[in-house]
């Protein structure tokens, strides 16, 4: 009987050992499976990260190209602006020279002034004038006339009689309307000139002060105020 029990006990121990071995093997398999699954997950995650990195890289490259293109466009735009400014200055100098030539026709011995009206849309000159007396035979630049009754006119009163260059240029216009045109003159306009410009609906005046000191006279300062109110560009 004892022998049988010993054999049963031995068999039982074998079974327990086999079961433990199986359990251990199962655990090992589970761990291996977990490792494999973890590796798979890691690979998938790594793949996703790689794809994301590539997408970001493409976006950055695209943005970089966009920035470069934008910088190039801005550079070209600046060059175009610079060219336009340079070209405008060249034309400004040309039209001012025309006004200077007109001033040579003035008989004013002290302040000869010339003016030139230009349609900047097509570059055509549409009016030229210089400061003059209404009629040289009756109103001389000395402030006196050959007629004895007005022979005592004060020479300083020439400003009361003179027709300004800008006004003459407007009166001598070569077409009916000079609306939107630019006035080029060798002297800063005064009130009379501005009034005529407003009536003619001119939009801009370009002047140089080669015939007089750079400080503006009171009537010229008033003209600047009118320019601001009527939004007439002046430079």
Question: What are the salient characteristics of this protein?
Answer:
235 residues, alpha/beta, Cytidine Deaminase, domain 2, 5-stranded mixed β-sheet, 58% helix, dCMP deaminase activity, Cytidine_deaminase-like
- The CATH topology of the domain at 105-234 turns out to be Cytidine Deaminase, domain 2
- CATH classification class of the domain at 105-234: Alpha Beta
Strand content: 5-15%
What structural class do you assign from the helix and strand content?
A: alpha/beta
| Number of helical segments with 4 or more residues | 5
Shape: rod-shaped
SSE arrangement, N to C = HEEHHEHEHE
Radius of gyration: 48 Å
Under the CATH scheme, the architecture of the domain at 105-234 is 3-Layer(aba) Sandwich
- E-strand count: 5
Residue share in helix:
55-70%
Characterize the largest beta sheet: strand count, sense, and whether it forms a barrel. 5 strands, mixed
Question: What's the N-to-C terminus distance?
Answer: 131 Å
Question: Residue ranges: pLDDT <50 for 5 or more in a row?
Answer: 143-153
Give a summary of the structure in a few sentences.
The protein is of the alpha/beta class and 235 residues long. 58% of the residues lie in helices and 10% in strands. The chain has helices spanning 2-103, 158-161, 165-171, 191-200, 218-230, and strands at residues 114-119, 124-130, 182-185, 204-207, 233-234.
Describe how the helices and strands are arranged.
Blueprint: H1 2-103, E1 114-119, E2 124-130, H2 158-161, H3 165-171, E3 182-185, H4 191-200, E4 204-207, H5 218-230, E5 233-234
Parallel strand pairs: 3-4, 4-5
Antiparallel strand pairs: 1-2, 1-3
Helix pairs in contact: 3-4, 4-5
């Amino acid at each position: 009987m004892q022998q049988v029990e010993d054999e049963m006990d031995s068999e039982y121990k074998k079974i327990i050992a086999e079961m433990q071995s199986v359990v251990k093997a199962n655990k090992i398999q589970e761990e291996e499976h977990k490792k494999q699954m973890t590796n798979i997950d890691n690979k998938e995650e790594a793949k996703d990260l790689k794809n994301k990195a590539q997408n970001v890289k493409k976006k950055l490259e695209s943005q970089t190209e966009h920035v470069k293109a934008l910088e190039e466009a801005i550079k070209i735009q600046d060059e175009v602006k610079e060219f336009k400014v340079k070209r405008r200055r060249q034309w400004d100098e040309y039209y001012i020279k025309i006004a200077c030539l007109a001033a040579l026709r003035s008989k004013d011995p002290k302040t000869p002034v010339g003016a030139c009206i230009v349609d900047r849309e097509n570059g055509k000159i549409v009016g030229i004038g210089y400061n003059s007396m209404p009629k040289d035979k009756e109103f001389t630049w000395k402030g006196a006339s050959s007629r004895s009754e007005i022979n005592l006119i004060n020479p300083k009163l020439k400003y009361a009689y003179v027709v300004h260059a800008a006004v003459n240029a407007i009166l001598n216009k070569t077409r009916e309307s000079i609306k939107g045109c630019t006035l080029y003159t060798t002297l800063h306009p005064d009130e009379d000139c501005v009034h005529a410009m407003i009536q003619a609906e001119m939009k801009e005046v370009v002047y140089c002060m080669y015939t007089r000191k750079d400080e503006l006279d009171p009537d010229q300062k008033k003209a600047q105020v009118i320019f601001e109110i009527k939004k007439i560009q002046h430079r």
